[in-house]
Amino acid sequence: MSSVQTIPGLESEAVGDDRGLLSDMIRHALADEITTGRLKPGTLLEEQQIATRFGASRTPVREALRQLAVAGMVDIRPRRGVTVAMMSPERIMDMFETTAEIEALCVRLATYRITPVERSELQTMHDTSAEWVRSGNISAYDDFNREFHEAIYRATHNTFLVEQAVGIRARLAAFRRTQLRQGDRLMKSHAEHGQVLQAMARGDGDEAARCMRAHMLNASCALTSYIKDMQLDDVSGNR
Amino acid sequence: MSSVQTIPGLESEAVGDDRGLLSDMIRHALADEITTGRLKPGTLLEEQQIATRFGASRTPVREALRQLAVAGMVDIRPRRGVTVAMMSPERIMDMFETTAEIEALCVRLATYRITPVERSELQTMHDTSAEWVRSGNISAYDDFNREFHEAIYRATHNTFLVEQAVGIRARLAAFRRTQLRQGDRLMKSHAEHGQVLQAMARGDGDEAARCMRAHMLNASCALTSYIKDMQLDDVSGNR
DNA sequence: GATGATTTGTACGTATGTATA
DNA sequence: ATATACATACGTACAAATCAT
To answer: Which of A7, A41, B94, B203 has the fewest Cβ atoms within 10 angstroms?
Structure first.
């Protein structure tokens, strides 16, 4: 279950950096727990508690929390503590719409700029994923899904855009994960990927964009019902 | 010269918070100096130096720098120091393209969702800006320009998208500022805004998006020549 | 509403790692 | 190549504010 969430700007260097900064380790750990949903919105994050948990002092913990705040994953109310970012249903929908639009944007650019090698890799990934659909391996499909979409980002050959897209996608990971369990979403998702690839193959960027937008909105709809259950936090949506 | 750059996630609370966090003050100050270009890419930022400059200890400075790193405004090389983020010409172009696409995206959504009041305000802003074009008041036009584009973001009624758009725009502020001085860019910019507004008035979101994309790319071209001069930093584009 | 406990915000000290002579 | 200098990374200490009673 390699749930390595790569949030641009939130990783210092490539893998293998074992003697990395403590604040980085803590930040990665917390970011992962937040994106996977293990740390639910509204949860208070006490510095000392986290520090002892990681066998560190408060200093690196504070730095980690401050950085997560910029990434929008936690909210800091000065002198009142840090909480996992509250996501109102409206905000979640806004984030989904933004993701859908940015993905559509990416796939349009990718259609015009993808290299033969990239196209081949993308198709291979897609074909391979059929196996996860057949076997109902949601976890594997979820991993593939991220790889698939990120491969499209990269095919834009716009590094900055890739970072933005990956960053936004990561922030919705907790919600997307469960979305695939809804009904026959897995199969539909696969089919929609196929449509996107076909439009890309025809070089029709606008159509690919439309397909992608529809794909994302379908995923969003599959999620809508679930979101309401997610709101197990009290009425403290305000301050 | 009210150059208040609002980077989403980089401000803790509304105005009036005088006894705010020191790290926030420092971060805002540094962010402003970086976005305005007063602090040039590649500049080394020493903790102690900044601390004494702000009459603070190194702790809040460190937190500020860490946060700026997540926002992509500085680069941190562990135990080697913090430098103002290097922007390669390729990266700048990537950022410009991304901005152009996101602005296009925003104006399309805005076309369908803008309220009559918002539409009126936007038109009024545009009309008023004609005065700055006539008088050649670049500073005033630059301020208006940001307001104009952000008003379009807001007209999407997607809070998250607004935050993303504003954040990306802010990171290009240093480059955009000078771009308006190029030739008759001021007048052209105004005319292009008018075309965008006309397309919006017709309810033609796709055409508005095309106009906006063209508008942004024109601004980008006006800048290309300038960017090369900006590269006064050595060949240390690598690590 | 006042007081005590807890937690955050800032300052400072020390060690480790990096750059330089 | 070794050693020196220096900046960073982390820990600890204290002050101030928030909250809980």
So the answer is: B203
